[in-house]
Specification:
One of its GO terms (molecular function) is DNA binding. The protein has helices spanning 7-14, 18-25, 33-45, 52-59, 75-90, 104-112, 133-141, 165-178, 194-209, 226-236, 251-263, 297-313, and strands at residues 64-69, 94-99, 121-124, 146-149, 160-163, 184-188, 219-221, 245-248, 273-275, 292-294, 321-324, 327-329. By secondary structure, the chain is of the alpha/beta class. Strands 2-1-3-4-5-11 form a six-stranded parallel sheet, sandwiched between helices. The chain has a four-stranded parallel sheet with strand order 7-6-8-9, with helices on both faces. A two-stranded antiparallel ribbon has the order 10-12.
């Protein structure tokens, strides 16, 4: 056929009513087994695909999921999207993607202009300094479920999926200590994000456990780019009493720090250890290769979408907080 197959086409070929075909496809109790098998066999033969827009008018389901996230160009979020897609497409859901560019104003505008009547749910990773908590709650109050991932809104009762930022940071810093580094700095992400605070706490607690000094001047907060990492490291190593190791909030910042260290003639690993957080593919390309904490980005995408579908299909589904562990990968940048 030169057009999409409809249930009318199936009904006509089998000489039965449209309503019978519809009930057979939905597997209702009032269609006999022989008729159901004939309908399903012909639907498969004709490559029938359900019209979710039409079904939505009856079932109040659009089979559309909106995903709101800060970036799409970095490795972490693109991998999360891949995990979301695997689950969504398996269950015949479409994805509508919104990118905030890490702007709270853009995030707020997206939420205000969402066509919620055409959505079954939202997956959200909030922007830095997001002030849209009230608007997210208003969306939930309309009956549209939300699941937060990675960057979460703590004040809203709904499911959240995160990596273990605290223990990942603790393990990264302890790895540096075990390699013999004693003066460890932290170039952190923006202070307004909960996972930034968790990674900072992991850093501080690891130093405390091993009796190492904590210097406020060795903690620098900024953005997540390579340029931010370069500038942060420039501040740290412009002083006479500079650190002998750097724990970075992500791999891009860590690589930026490495650029600055090279410019200053310092040997990475032998003189100054560097460890990141993400396991961005570029960490294996730079010289020396970058030690890091690998985040379970793909699994975070899958799990967040699975939880959203549970919220969609069971309105009284109890919210879950899911924390997935990272994995330490030791490379050349922490080898003395």
């Amino acid at each position: 056929m030169g057009r999409f197959v409809t249930i009318k086409d199936i009904a006509k070929k089998l000489n039965i009513s449209v309503s019978t075909v519809s009930r057979a496809l939905r597997d209702t109790y009032d269609v006999n087994q022989e008729t159901r098998e004939k309908v399903l066999a012909l639907a498969s033969e004709l490559n029938y695909r359900p019209n979710f827009n039409a079904m939505g008018l009856v079932n109040r389901n659009s089979h559309n999921i909106a995903v709101i996230l800060p970036f799409i160009t970095n490795y972490y979020f693109s991998t999360v999207i891949t995990g979301i897609q695997e689950v969504a497409y398996k269950h015949d859901y479409n994805i509508i993607l919104h990118i905030t560019n890490d702007s709270p104003e853009r995030e707020l505008s997206i939420i205000k202009n969402l066509a919620v009547s055409n959505l079954d749910g939202l997956l959200v990773s909030v922007s830095t300094n997001s002030d849209a908590g009230t608007h997210f709650q208003q969306v939930i109050d309309t009956g549209i479920p939300i699941v937060f991932f990675d960057r979460v809104s703590d004040g809203i009762l709904t499911s959240k999926v995160m990596q273990d930022d605290y223990n990942g940071a603790f393990e990264a810093v302890e790895h540096l200590i075990e390699r013999g580094y004693k003066k460890i700095a932290h170039i952190a992400g923006p202070e307004g994000l909960s996972f930034t605070q968790k990674r900072k706490k992991g850093y501080l607690d690891a130093l405390k456990k091993h009796g190492l000094p904590v210097k406020e001047g060795w903690i620098v907060s900024s953005g997540f780019s390579q340029e931010d990492g370069q500038q942060d490291a420039a501040k740290l190593f412009s002083r006479k009493d500079h650190p002998d190791a750097v724990f970075a909030a992500n791999d891009r910042k860590a690589i930026g720090a490495m650029v600055t260290l090279k410019e200053k003639g310092l040997q990475i690993g032998k003189q100054v250890g560097v460890i990141g957080f993400t396991n961005d593919p570029v960490s294996t390309v730079v010289t020396p290769t970058l030690s890091t904490i690998a985040e379970p980005a793909f699994e975070i995408g899958k799990k967040s979408c699975e939880l959203l579908l549970k919220h969609i299909n069971k309105r009284n589904f109890i919210a879950e907080d899911v924390t997935l562990p990272g994995t330490l990968i030791a490379r050349e940048s922490t080898h003395r």
